[in-house]
Write a structure and sequence with these properties.
The chain has helices at 24-40, 42-49, 51-63, 72-86, 88-98, 117-146, 154-162, 165-189, 192-198, 203-216, 218-236, 243-261. By secondary structure, the chain is an all-alpha fold. The radius of gyration is 23 Å and the shape is globular. It has 12 helices and no strands.
């Protein structure tokens, strides 16, 4: 029987994990490891990450010609806010590769077996709500600048924003407010999801550990935030298609960043073995559905 590892962290603990001090040179290493993971597992990461450009293109096509064209940019940047949640499967693949385990794409969904699943979903839901609030706020900023009626085409919108003083103010205010939303999402999630994936901790511990990570490494984490932002901008430029590469690289690198900055737990995460099902006999149906197998090894 093969050793199938499923997410089964150690018992939950109340203490915050110890946070190491790291340097900018460590970020170079984690990016290198992220690229190496991407090159080793390209089929898996592209399969998981194509949802970003596909959904983005569908939204852009749907909004084109409607009165919601100004929301295309906030929606695109809103993807970045939920990126740490969407990359949860990539963290697991990197974890398995580092442990010498099977990295088949199906293991990206092993998170469903995690004792921390509720916390992961709650934190992910928080990021989704945050992204929706950002879109609503961005729309409010646009209405305050240009009124309720938006341009009918993307080209008209671009001309309006780049060619008027109101458009200039919109870019300044919008990007400043967007940066605040991005900082909030980054602060609560920089290591939260890898920690929840790796250990059985609560959402409060995960968020507190992310905040502690930034407090201990303010300069390095600021550089990491700029790297993430720059990568997402570059990936979004060619109609979001570049995110199919940028997102998995950053996702894998985020796992290695977590390993670099958080002290390992004293208790190793126990492996989970899928129970072996014994033989069932047709003559015993339906009683066999509620009884153990007759095989002595079951």
């Amino acid at each position: 029987m093969s050793n199938v590892d499923v997410i089964m962290p150690a018992d939950a603990g109340a203490d915050l994990p110890a946070v190491r001090r790291i340097a900018v040179t460590d970020l170079v290493d984690v990016l290198r490891l992220g690229v190496d993971d991407f090159r080793t597992m390209p089929t898996h990461v592209v399969f998981l990450s194509l949802i970003y450009p596909v959904v983005g293109l569908i939204l852009a096509r749907t909004l084109h010609g409607m009165d919601l064209v100004p929301l295309i940019y906030p929606l695109a940047t809103g993807f970045a806010l939920i990126g740490p949640f969407a990359a949860i499967g990539l963290y697991e693949l990197s974890r398995r590769r580092g442990a010498g385990l099977d990295t088949s794409w199906r293991h990206a969904f092993d998170v469903r077996h995690s004792p921390s699943l509720i916390s992961i979903l709650l934190l992910g839901g928080m990021l989704v709500v945050l992204s929706l609030v950002w879109v609503a706020v961005a729309h409010g900023i646009y209405v305050a600048s240009f009124g309720i009626h938006g341009p009918e085409t993307i080209s008209a919108f671009v001309s309006k924003v780049l060619g008027t003083s109101a458009g200039f103010r919109l870019m300044i205010v919008g990007n400043l407010v967007g940066a605040l939303f991005a900082f909030l999402a980054f602060a609560v999630s920089v290591v939260s999801f890898p920690l929840l994936l790796d250990r059985n901790v609560g959402i409060a511990v995960a968020i507190a550990t992310s905040l502690k990570t930034i407090a201990v490494n303010p300069g390095t984490m600021a550089v990491w935030a700029m790297i993430v932002a720059a990568g997402l901008v570059v990936g979004a430029l060619p109609f979001l298609v570049g995110l199919a590469i940028v997102m998995p690289v950053l996702g894998h690198a985020s796992w290695h960043l977590y390993q670099r900055v958080i002290e390992p737990s004293a208790n190793a995460r126990p492996a989970y073995h899928t129970p072996v099902k014994g033989r069932r006999y047709a003559a015993e149906f339906p009683a066999s559905l509620s009884t153990r197998s007759r095989d002595p090894e079951a």
